[in-house]
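Risk mitigation, structural track. In case the binding assays with protoporphyrin IX containing FE fail to produce interpretable data, a predicted complex structure has been prepared as a fallback.
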Amino acid sequence: MTAESSAAPTESPMFNPLEPGYMENPYPHFAEMREGQPVHLSMVDLWVLFDHDDVFRLLRDPSMSVMDEKIEVRDEARMAEMIEAVGEEFERDSSMLNTDPPDHTRLRRLVSKAFTPAAIQALRPRIQQLVDGALDKIEAAGGGDVVKELAFPLPFDVISEMLGMPETDKEQIAAWSGTLVKSLDPMLAIDAFIEIRDASNAMNAHIDEVIRWKRENPGDDLLTALIAAEEDGDRLTPVELRDQVTVLFVAGHETTVNLIGTGIYELLRNPEQAAIWRDDPELDTTAVDEMLRFVSPVQFSRRITLDDIDFQGTIIPKGMFVLAGLASSNHDPKKWGPTADDLDLRREGAGQHLSFGSGAHYCLGASLAKLEASIAIGTFLRRFPDAAVSGDVEWNGRINLRGLEHLPISV
Ligand code: HEM
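Fallback model:
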């Protein structure tokens, strides 16, 4: 069956993340898609899955690829327009996130040594210290921007320290990485590709420089360990080393910021849920799973089909780009029941959310992210029981790594 023959009838809903109101609340749109067309071919030749069971199956299917060069069916006119505007095709990113086995297995094994449960738990005192410092500043000022003071700097500092990055111009790096992650958004204007190319070149040059510096200044850190693996011969090439450092660094903070920032916002809007967490320290770890389900800091993952595959009677052909609707699956009433759209910190089985993906590419930093969020949100709730939103919140405009850019509060 061809892409055309399995495409939607015209009256079916269209996935359109650019529609007004989507950024503030995409969930009604997801509900409409699950209802009308859970297996959807969008206007730009990409498929989107919205139902929990389909997303789960896609992520765990070992016959799927994560390598964009395996895409066979492209919008040729748009590709030509993009290449003309950007001036070149993007260099392939060899991070584990974009690599299939056997290379994926080798890369992930090397890096995961630093993410053992004991290594993550050992970070607890430092994370608490960083959280306390951020909250001291907010308290002294009688309020502030939760994203700027806590949600962004906490994961940024933690992953920088784990890697052993030098002190650098945080704002510049944050700007590059903020642009880089836009490449994960499904529908990009051509201009965005140019910005992403420039940010990617600048970030690569910066990470190369950091690696050169680290060779001269080794320490007890992840970057030194990865350099040792690279110097050990054929286990990690220089480009692979750079790309693993970049993915750890970017994934380490551009995601957790949304869990902490949007998570605190949702709790300020649900005071009875905030009180449940505040009064029960036992919830510090389990409540984070419900926050992850509810907030879905990474809204989509993607795979490329290497064979035709059937979802609910619709065939997605070989060589197609498929978006897995993580956020939609986390709110699918067929999985979560009639309260799927409610925040319920005592929900049974909340840990079955797909916010960290599933299968071979399951998030390597999941336990780190959960530790950071449980300390940040738990401490925030207990320290500021009277916290309230004090101005206009601003969304970050990202379809995939959806979150708040600014969350002004008074305490
Ligand atoms: C709330 C925070 C986070 C969320 C929601 C999140 C989400 C995800 C998701 C959905 C994937 C799978 C992508 C796929 O299936 O294609 C993933 C992979 C990954 N994440 Fe996270 N992540 C978070 C925090 C972190 C942190 C703190 C780190 C590192 C310190 C990290 C490092 C990675 C890496 C390296 C991968 C690639 C794993 C692989 O391809 O095998 N993430 N993450």
